[in-house]
Amino acid sequence: MVEAVLAPVDRVREADEPHSHVVRFGSDKPLRLDAGVDLAPFQVAYQTYGTLNGDRTNAILICHALTGDQHVANVHPVTAKPGWWETMVGPGRPIDTERYFVICPNVIGACMGSSGPASTNPKTGAPWGLDFPVITIRDMVRAQAMLLDHLGIESLFSVAGGSMGGMQVLQWTASYPERVFSALPIAASTRHSAQNIAFHEVGRQAIMADPEWCKGRYFTEQKDPRKGLAVARMGAHITYLSDAALHRKFGRRFQDRDNPTFSFDADFQVESYLRHQGISFVERFDANSYLYLTRAMDYFDLAGDYDGVLANAWKGSPTRFCVISFTSDWLFPTSESRAIVHALNAGGARVSFAEIVTDKGHDAFLLDEPELFAIVRGFLEGAARARGLPAQRR
Amino acid sequence: MVEAVLAPVDRVREADEPHSHVVRFGSDKPLRLDAGVDLAPFQVAYQTYGTLNGDRTNAILICHALTGDQHVANVHPVTAKPGWWETMVGPGRPIDTERYFVICPNVIGACMGSSGPASTNPKTGAPWGLDFPVITIRDMVRAQAMLLDHLGIESLFSVAGGSMGGMQVLQWTASYPERVFSALPIAASTRHSAQNIAFHEVGRQAIMADPEWCKGRYFTEQKDPRKGLAVARMGAHITYLSDAALHRKFGRRFQDRDNPTFSFDADFQVESYLRHQGISFVERFDANSYLYLTRAMDYFDLAGDYDGVLANAWKGSPTRFCVISFTSDWLFPTSESRAIVHALNAGGARVSFAEIVTDKGHDAFLLDEPELFAIVRGFLEGAARARGLPAQRR
Question: Which parts of chain B sit beneath pLDDT 70?
Fold first, then answer.
């Protein structure tokens, strides 16, 4: 793992030579993609925290969200900011790295060291760009299973993640039920709604409208579609927050002034905040990756793989589930989590469900939510007893 | 009014020489703007339908929304499509042009013939662009009041509009209570929320990110920021519909195929629909106007003009109000209309309120909503009796 603050590094180099562990799969071990092609060679970048026990029974896989990466609980090599889930993962945290061995891979299609459109295409020596095959949530999970094989981990104690991470959790429990002892899908859904697809499509169009996108060949053309990517991020960011949270944080307050400027400056605090979100995002993220990962989310439809019957995805599942949603999440509303719980019940799976009351919206899974921490801690504690892991030191 | 289908015309020419009535105010009659400057000379383009009675007591002013214009109930000169509120306004319609004299002006800042950033700046002979002063909802209403003075209409029988049109209705009743006998604010609010400002800001950033925007000088530079404006429209369009309506209309259905293409084509029907919305919008709308009108909406805060107490805006108001909202409108939710009703009650105004159950979202005010038609018809009928207008012929 990355132990100390690194000087912020170039995100372009991270795509091939990340500041992480990396496993490289050769041509003999292709990744079979849903698109019907094999990806080979390819690589998976990942971080680990804690120690694998002798029985190899204490591993927890963390699946990251659309704009996340493997840097869960260490300083980020590009931004020099803290890990994205440091409140959840670490020594003494709900996902306690003194007790569990935590693995977080960068997803396939992303840009922090797992193969994706920003990686070098071995056939050309140039970045893949749009020649990278379109991937799915199931492809991400397949690559993660290959990583676990490589690490010699047959069965995960748990797999956890929010948003797109939750989609991967759900896919794991459907694709590899025997490898998942417990599962924590948070603020997730088994399919993207028309509204969600619509928001993603606007983001993609914003990127593709930027002339510096160059049909995805911006690396070779020495361009960077920063403006398009920033607009995409700004629009998406609104959907991560609730109306109430935006009102509480910003309301109609002006930025550094008392009266309107009667101009197109960022008069309102909320404008200033959004512009900052857009600008800081482009420092660490690849525009093509944004296209690929939003597409993977749009394509996700778990029931579709089981004749349209979601319960079939989990028939006789041995996994213990804890499904968590947030009252003010309008992107992945509680109704989606309820549908998961109903299908799990119909499939006879073991499931608990918590809807957490908060005004923080979809982003609540990343924020300081004491109830979320308590539920995750308690659920893992119960699962650890059932798994026969040693009791927690007090 | 425009009686017949015109061949679609150039939107650029419409800004100065519209296919409408136009009143031109000279340097002796400036429009005093909230920004602290005078706009002069300036012009207001408008359409009328029906006949003004001898007492001049049957005039209804229609205020259009962000992307609307004066072509309420006639074929549009640029798009050759039907008027935007033909279901509401016309012979025998709820706003019955056989009974009422209907006036619809293009708002100041727009691009269909009232002065705005696409109009020719008389000082330079070139389009105003960003040299046009930033305008407010109150400025729009001031210009409309000058139009009514010009038409010799002292008192309106009613003023009606949805969304940004509803904001103008509310401003009318606050600025000129004695000139408004009845008022119909539909799907409106007295202030833009942080979330609404945020969505608008993303749209503005999408336009400004387009290199063809040229800091607003695209006319002079022979450019056209079509891509940026289309992205802005796509994003905004999502907010006009409800999640349920998008699900009902499109769900996750593919466009012209059974399986995903594993590409960035418009696989899903909802993507195809949104792209069409973006492309068709840019044919008829000016990118700078989009900046100005969204800004005017963001600045709107009626209570702010009355020491933060909304009820003061309507103290002793003689106007009869009918406030209408829609259950699935998340852009201007019912809570906003309820706040209007509470303030009107506190100010002692005469008000009725209807929340219409529909899954059509904010756009419901433009769509075929029988309950909306019945309420508007009934409210106007009651107001007509109170005004002493002759009973409707049966």
Answer: 1-9, 393-394
SS (H, E, C) B358-380: CCCCHHHHHCCCHHHHHHHHHHH
What was the pLDDT predicted at A1? Answer: 40
Distance from CA of B155 to the nearest CA of A (A): 31
Are the CB atoms for B72 and B47 separated by under 8 Å? yes
CATH topology of domain A11-192+301-387: Rossmann fold (3.40.50)
Cβ-contact B192, B298 below 8 angstroms: yes
Taking a contact as any Cβ pair under 8 Å apart, which residues of chain B between 17 and 46 contact chain A?
A: 34-36
Query: B220: how many CB neighbours lie within 10 A of its CB?
Result: 12
CATH of B11-196+305-387, one of 3.40.50.1820, 3.30.365.10, 3.30.930.10, 3.30.70.20: 3.40.50.1820
Q: What is the ipTM score, two decimals? A: 0.94
Do residue A264 and residue B291 have CB atoms under 8 angstroms apart? yes
* Residues in chain B closer than 8 A to A301 (CB atoms): 252
CB-defined contacts A:B, below 8 A = 154
Q: 3-state class of A335 per DSSP?
A: helix
Percent of chain A with pLDDT over 90: 93
At residue B79, the 3 state secondary structure works out as coil
H helices of B97-177, in order, are: 137-151, 164-175
A134 CB neighbours in chain B (<8 A) are 262-264
How far is residue A36's CA from residue A23's CA, in Å, rounded to a whole number? 23
B251 touches chain A (CB under 8 A): yes
Q: Which chain A residues touch B260 with a CB distance below 8 Å?
A: 299
> What is the domain partition of chain B in residue ranges?
11-196+305-387, 197-294
Residues within 8 A of A (CB atoms), B 201-220 only: 201-202, 204-206, 208-211
The CATH T-level fold of domain B197-294 is Rna Polymerase Sigma Factor; Chain: A (1.10.1740)
Asked if A85 and A91 count as a contact pair (C-beta separation under 8 A), the reply is no
Helices B164-175 & B137-151, crossing angle to 10 degrees?
A: 70
Query: What's the residue count for chain A?
Result: 394
Instruction: Judge: A234–B266 Cβ closer than 8 Å, yes or no.
Output: no
The reply to whether A247 touches chain B by the CB within 8 Å rule is yes
Among A138, A149, A170, A137, residue whose Cα is nearest residue A59: A149
* Strands, E assignment, A95-240: 95-96, 101-105, 158-162, 182-186
Q: B290 vs chain A: nearest CA distance in angstroms?
A: 12
Of the candidates A167, A162, A160, the residue with the CA atom closest to the CA atom of residue A183? A160
In chain B, the residue whose alpha carbon lies closest to the alpha carbon of A205 is: B231
Tell me whether residue B329 is one of the annotated catalytic residues: yes
Cβ proximity of B14 and B78 under 8 Å: yes
- Nearest residue of A to residue B333, measured between CA atoms: A243
CATH number for the region A197-293 comes to 1.10.1740.110
Q: Does A336 touch chain B (CB under 8 A)?
A: no
Spatial neighbors of B226 by CB under 8 A, at least 6 apart, are B210, B212, B282
Q: What is the mean pLDDT of chain A?
A: 95
Separation of alpha carbons B315 and B174, rounded Å: 9
What does the radius of gyration of chain A's CA atoms come to, in whole angstroms?
21
pLDDT tens string A243-268: 999 999 999 999 888 889 999 999 99
